[in-house]
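User: For my dataset I need records formatted as: sequence, then structure tokens, nothing else. Please produce one.
Assistant:
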Amino acid sequence: MSNNAKARVIGMGSYLPEKVLSNQDLEKLVDTSDEWIFSRTGMKERRIARDDEHASTMGAEAGRRALATAGKSADDVDLILVATMTPDYTSPSTAGLVQQMLSAKNAAAMDVQAMCSGYLYALTTAKAYIESGLYRCVLVVASEKMSSVVDYTDRNTCILFGDGASASVVTGEGAGLQVDTVSLGSDGSLAELIWIPGGGSRCPPSAEMLESGKHYFQMSGREVYKHAVRRMASTAQTCLDTAGVTADQISWVVPHQANLRIMEAITKSFVIPSERVYKTVHKYGNTSASGVAIALDDLTREHALSAGERVLLIAFGGGLTWGAMVLKQVEG
């Protein structure tokens, strides 16, 4: 592989649990309605993992599918990166568990935690490893079991989230989506807008912690909406400027699948036709770190991209974190 190698995604694969949680199902759990949920979020249903399905098992299955698509074996993988905010354990890493499940005996493994921006952060890390020449084949996995941290008595959050995983094989050669430009950002001063306050070393597990519900995902919805729209639009523009392209040169925009209203607001800021914004939020809900990855995999299976076509990825999550990325379809 040349030292001038440019990182590209040469194969993807996703895994969605079989169980469907519809808006009608949620009507039985909390004071809400199908019309209320859909009008505010664009969601109709989401997938929920079984008790024996975890971030690791879903991620490993997505990884197997991605490797098969890329024509690679587990032995080819040098590094496994798992983006997740719902790891199997605080320690060890979920990436280590995925490595064992795939029998990827030549691979190093580590987790990346950037909440809903996790896939972009992990893909950027893979790009750095590939283009530095340190590794030749990186498996990026984004896997979330959000149902394990959602309070199903809180109608403001339980309607939003689903479970699922997606994986991408990243190398420096071959046909695929080349990672051209990246723009990432964060603001830790606003961490409490989206967080899980309990369970870490600052607020360790205890009966009191559980009783107070601090082990559940918590979000200040209105504030998050304002920051999400502004940060996603800004980082996307920075990424386009760095790439030297304009919005009309982008074939598809794949935003974080958090909320239809957020996606529509971003679309307006770039004057991008809604039909060029790829959406899976109606069928999968918000799957946090895996949302953009699942949508990108879905897009490439539904629409064959020609050489030179560009895709813009945009994400926003807790931390706060955000990011954008321009991918370009290239031949091998």
